[in-house]
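Progress narrative, work stream C.
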Amino acid sequence: METDQLQEMSAQELHDRSVRYAVRHGDFGFLWELLKVIPAAEAASGHDGETANDLTRVSALLSDAMASGEGELGEALRPFYIDYLSKHPDA
């Protein structure tokens, strides 16, 4: 899929496609990177309180990863998903 096509997708679609591909292909590197960028994305989307909690609780990060395509957080993570999907055109 071309980057232009990815840009037209919603944050939720980008999230779902990225996470589904990573899970299906055992790409734990991507999933780990997602967990690492969620706190910064939450801070960028105005949810500073979530950032402190996430850094101390892995279970919160895992939960966030599964819902990280929604709302402002999904929008903040759009570039991350687009970069990943453009490197994996079969996703």
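Work stream C, second folded protein:
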Amino acid sequence: MPRLPPLVRLGLAVRRGFGRFTPDPFVVAVAMTVVTLVAGALALGGGLSDLVKVVRMWSAPGGLWSLLAFAGQMSLMLTLGTALAAAPPVRRGLHALARLAPGPRALVGLVAFVSCTLCLLNWSLGLVCGAMFAKTAGDEARRRGFALHYPLLCAAGYAGMMVWHGGLSGTAPLKATTLADLTEVLGPDLAARVGPIALGHSLFGGLNLAVTVGLWLLAPLVFMALTPAEGADPDPQPAPRSGSPSPSDTSSETGSEEHVPSTIPPEGALDRLERSPLVVWALAAPAAAALVFALEGSGGVDLNAINLALWVLALVLHGRPDAFVRACDAGARACAGILLLFPLYGGIMGVMKGTGLAAALAGVFAAADPRAFTTLTFVSAGVLNLFIPSGGGQWAVQGPIVMSAALERGVEPTHAMLAIAYGDQWTNMLQPFWAVPLLAITGVRARDIIGYCTLWMLAGGLWIAGCLFLASL
């Protein structure tokens, strides 16, 4: 075997090492729940009555059940996204895109580039479509005989979640553009002192362009560098073959002629109705109109608009209601992780906020030197993201503390806000909360991708920290 480049050897070592001790995301969520409950009780005094208070916070409507609506949105997105990917025109388009890559390294780099591009447009679009493209790229790699580790492609499909908050759906920058939205998070006095931050100064300002464009270009390079040359991978893992029939396949589920009854009953009116394109258009037409109205009314793309768009596209591209429903069934079976994990993280968030742990963690570096303020804020935001994996939730908790401290130390408020945003996206690479949809779509385990994601997190973190430090000089 040829001598491998250092980064490739590091990638091989890390994927083996992390795979030995990284548990299932559900186990991680349970462990974090226990740690948070104990830490919350200690923060309140450490007595039995304090533990009872913390458990009440955990199970209150603002805790355990606070993310039910979000879990429903994400489950529907996963179901409809899977159905859309199964539509014949989309399958052909994704495979055509994957065929543009001349070799394994180019294919991995292309997946990372597509994931980052889509996440810059909208994080939810990038999360689901990045995973779908990674799965398609795995099929293409198997078809062309590439000796490629499939989880590397899946990690590349998740890479965009470390870029999203500097893109067009970034929560903190969008919520800072009006005084009303700032007041909701910072309070009237602090909001008036900070003032609205225009997108020209945040998303399209020099700091964010340097950070985000740099990450956008760095992601494909990092994942290509982690890819062994053709035939040099000592332990390749091809994409798994699907054991179920294609959702668009109208043949019998077994696919064997001997199992087909010799006498097929004539097709009745109900059978024709279940296969009729009229049913598709009876729903697609008003749904498309509702999508237009929603976009006009909200002035932006939210999760409901994304789901409605996925619904319309999947319906129309399948063309028949029976094919659409079968495709959705495959996606619905993959939603268990979302339905189990999201309530646990809702409970963790409720305890972190109710006990003051989140505020304490958010302000741990508030007294830092102005030259290191944004860099240390970025690090603290990355740690806080592990317990509050929500861009909006983190901005609500950390925003008032950081923005007040920034004004006191003469730090540019825009840079302080962006430091929170970068920290929020940075540790998504370690956060099973966001990885669950990708794991469900691609069929890999968290332990299979965590090593690659960690290396990407370290490389991207160095770039972000360097840009923040230079901007503070």
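Residues 243-262 have pLDDT under 50 and may be disordered. No further action is required on this item.
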